Give the backbone structure.
Amino acid sequence: MTHCSTPAPGSTAELDERISRPNDGVLNALRSAPGDCMVIGAGGKMGFHVCRMLQRGFAAIGHSLGGHNSIYTAVFDPRIRVVVTSCGFDSYQDYYDGDDANWQPGRGWCQVRYMPRMADYRGRLDEIPFDFPELLAALAPRPVYINAPVNDNNFRAASVDRCVAGARKVYELLDAEGEIIVRHPDCGHNFPKSLREESYRLIDSVLMPVEQP
């Protein structure tokens, strides 16, 4: 007899959640699929759970380079329903205190792997047509979890707070003020385990909610 270490679901709602939970293969297939999905046979045996699975959407989570890429990606992909960004940004104008040396071609945001044409704004950072207050606001009302350590040597925690303050006005307009969460751990350019776990719980609450009976 084969024994399963996973306890049996305690309710119909929990059973529905498990059946509609996608595996890695399904996630990879959905990531590579352009556009929308159509479910043919939604009223069939598995149709309900396939539809429920597709309604979950995706999460974006990243640290440092991944931290700002999670924001950039979510702005353009509404399928991403929750965003976690760690040590990923401050205002472009505050980046290394606006030091021109970091806006030379090949430096900072202007590296080839980032946005090399940003070097065109060296000396006139206030003319960059977008910044993180607008990017964060564009995510509203989706939940956003931000880890901004007080001793991060790349991105200034105080600048992060100013960006969030600007975006929060849009969250307030959409009655979603509590959906943008900021944490300031006392560490450097790092994502502490306790905060990672907190962000994972947020993702689970959005993508895998268990309805109470």
In short: Residues 58-91+131-213 form a domain with the Rossmann fold fold (CATH 3.40.50.1820). The two ends are 32 Å apart (CA to CA).
